[in-house]
Amino acid sequence: MVVDLESVPAPTKKKIRRYLLLLLFMGLAVYFFLPQLTAMQHALLVVSTLRVPFVLLAVGAQALSYLGSGYLLRSVVNPGSRTVSLIDGALVTAGANSVGTLGGGVLGTAGMTYLFLRRRGVNRGVAGLCSWLPIYLNNTVLALLSLASLLILTFLKKSSGLLAAGFTFVSLTLGAAIGLLVWCLSHREKLPSIAIALAGFFAKFRRKPLDHSRIETTVRHLLEGWDALVLGGWHGPVLGAVLNTGFDMLTLRFLFLAAGLHVNPAVLVAGYGVPQLLGKLTVILGGIGVVESGMAGLYTIMGVPKTGAIVVVLGYRLLSFWLPTLIGVVLVPYLERSGSAPNQTESTGSGRNSVPSEGRPRR
Per the confidence metrics, is the pTM higher than 0.85? Predict the structure, then answer.
């Protein structure tokens, strides 16, 4: 059978850009993971020495942690909508986190969350809300846990100036972000003009016309989604953030039990919060080395046997960081292609997820 190549349509520029971005992402993933294979193999070997039933419970707890993130996203989109399911939200979180880990940082995580949700028919405003709100909520929960960690460490006379300085820096950053949010919500009338100005700046580089009405609709949807959260829909997202961190800590707890170590909740919290927060401050991808050394060091000075602390922390990082990042890398092509492409003309109606019927995802 002879195929006439001239009859085959050439891929559009949009598809070419998408394929190039996917190729670049997969190249970064290979570049990132190849040097880390020894560390991952060592962590896997360490986990194989632990009690299997508790390791399985730890795996289940980590899966529930991601389902907590999925619940967070679904709650923001719309509790009564089928646009984003609990599983969809968890997969989107895993894929977006992988992009952020491989060099995109917070912007990469937020941007890919936005893109994946748009591919599922979520309007621009709500997708934008979902891209940054989980980051704020998760970091706020982590900051509160870090404060509890510092208080416990201070009570045990194990605290240091470096830990306090790190927590202060993150607290100031979160405070500035909250202050910016309050300013934006108290000056709503200025947001469309600010958004148009920013979009116009980037449109010059992209050499594309600026659609003022689309930007205004996006800002309106963003504010409508926020209003719905303020008027009573905030319980779900907050619960999702708490579940995400809570089950992540439970993963660590089960691994301690798998190693035959019994730590009380105060010690568990004290060794968990601050290293996680310091890991987010570093430019090292995923806080590699910072989280491991910080956790193992804190648990050791609080009386946990050094060898056991190292084994547990390495197992925890395997289940909470390495494996989810690998799974997220595999998920990115699927998430980028799945769902329905966003409709060019979005609904101008109210509601947190006002999308026309033809823009709904295929089932």
Answer: no
User: Rounded distance, CA 278 to CA 142, Å?
Assistant: 11
Distances (CA, A) of 160 to 153, 165, 265, 304: 9, 9, 21, 19
Residue ranges covered by each domain of the chain: 53-340
Rounded distance, CA 284 to CA 278, Å?
11
Candidates 26, 57, 69; CA nearest to 240 is 69
Angle at the Cα of 136 from the Cα atoms of 160 and 134, rounded to 5 degrees? 130
CA distance 317 to 313: 6
* 16-49 exposure pattern, b = at least 16 Cβ within 10 A, e = fewer: eeeeeeeeebeebbeebbeeeeebbeebeebbee
Most distant pair of Cα atoms in the chain: their distance: 79
Q: Read off the amino acid at residue 271.
A: G
Instruction: Report how far residue 339's alpha carbon sits from residue 331's, in angstroms, rounded to the nearest whole number.
Output: 13
Candidates 194, 196, 219, 227; CA nearest to 123 is 219
Alpha-carbon gap, residue 268 to 171, rounded angstroms: 22
Q: What is the pLDDT of residues 287-335, one digit of tens each?
A: 777 888 889 888 998 888 888 888 899 889 989 988 898 888 888 888 8
